[in-house]
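Appendix C reproduces, verbatim, an entry submitted by the partner laboratory led by Prof. M.T., so that reviewers can inspect both the input and the predicted structure.
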Amino acid sequence: MSIELACEAVGDGPPVVILHGLFGAGRNWARIARALGDSHRVYLPDARNHGASPRGQTMSYTEMAQDVLALIERERLQRPLLIGHSMGGKTAMTLALEHPQAISGLAVVDIAPERYSDQFSPYMMAMRGFDAAAATGRNEARQALAQDQAGDTPVLDFLMQNLRRHDERFDWRLNLLAVAMCMQELCGFPRRFRHRQYEGPALFLAGTESSYVQAESHDRIARLFPRAHLEHIDDAGHWVHADQPGALLRALRRWLHRHEAGTPRTAAPQAALAVR
């Protein structure tokens, strides 16, 4: 059963839906959404168990894709363009492969349709082990997580965005238990898609300082998305929208312009992804 996602929207024009990554929320993409809002109506949903969206015991990619499909139907969006980062990118790819008629194009930011090693369970354990309700301030939480995680500053900064004050107490915006229980599934990608293809336009954007999209990822992308086109964003790590928002915005605008202008793009040969 799908979950009714919390969602904000900005701008006016053809619909675009942006799906955030693990530990994130739609508001992480507010800057990009406002910029695209001068020509598009941009929707920023929170994934289940994230942000202001309802909680659920499970969060497979099929379930999260169904949540987004329900949002598209609820808002009566006519084949929106779909942008997804990290976990949101895998959700977007799942939706494209299962319900290709629901969208008109796909942009995936710094993720590939493959399994990744679990880098996040230690952070989940640290967050679950910290008594947020008893905290007296944000610095206390940050120091506790930094001690457990050897002070990985970029990750800590990102995780701390999930700590909120509720009345006189702090709590986490995440459903920590459900995310922790589903972590292995979130690290993977459904194997049943091995023989499926999304034949619509697909853009893959990868940060040059990120290790998430490797050369060996190109064949996997091309097999599932034969019209895929890969571009690299210089001096960007995994959080491309935070590291290089201007460059990412320019790449997305070029893609949106090509799509709306109806410029024909030849399909990349299978297992030979077109790279720029």
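The first strand starts at residue 7 and ends at 10. Additional entries are available on request from the coordinating office.
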